[in-house]
TrEMBL record:
Residues 114-183 form the N-acetyltransferase domain. Pfam families: Acetyltransf_1. This is N-acetyltransferase domain-containing protein. GO terms for molecular function: acyltransferase activity, transferring groups other than amino-acyl groups. InterPro entries: Acyl_CoA_acyltransferase (IPR016181), GNAT_dom (IPR000182), Trichothecene_AcTrans (IPR052523). It comes from Hortaea werneckii.
Amino acid sequence: MPLELSFMEEADIPAFAAVEAAAMAGWSVARAMDMTSRGGEPRQEMVERWAREGFQNDSQQVWLKVIDTELDELVAAALWRFELADERAQDASLVPARDAAVELPGQTHPVPDVMVGMGKIWEAFKNEFVGGQAFAITHPHHQRRGAASMLVRWGCEKADERGMVAALMATEAGVGVYLKHDFHVLNETVLDLRPYGIDASDLRIGMLRRPMSRENWS
């Protein structure tokens, strides 16, 4: 079952959201994000909406997908965001869109409180560098087939071409694939989920990768 890497299109967002939901099904943070018990939208719909907003409004985002060509099925996806210093300075003066309720005509989508907590951890880490942000997920049925490495490698090579550092906030489950692509752990922060209704904690692992010369690619 060969895997194929390509750019994700807006029409792929529902499939991406379904894969993300399957990949995050056992994650405590995902349960803390679910707003249905408070009359909000289901988490999968929330992720789909956020992805669509990113597609439509953020030109710095690059979405990738990995397709199992035999099944003709999206099995993994990643988001890379390439951020320059002047854009970062401009963003610092703005209120992050996900730190407040998103209001649409006749509809309000409150942001899960846990996302605000995660955002603060990320912003504190991000303030130490300028670079590209990475996020990758793989459907559980297709993990350990190399899809995640394909997605991460693409972004690393683009960051190298631009001479940019790359940074991300990894989970314990995902840290291994990033270590294989020369990311290094810079800090670890424990996010207490009890204030968000979940009797658990989540380790947020700040990772950084410095640009490499083309000769070092393998």
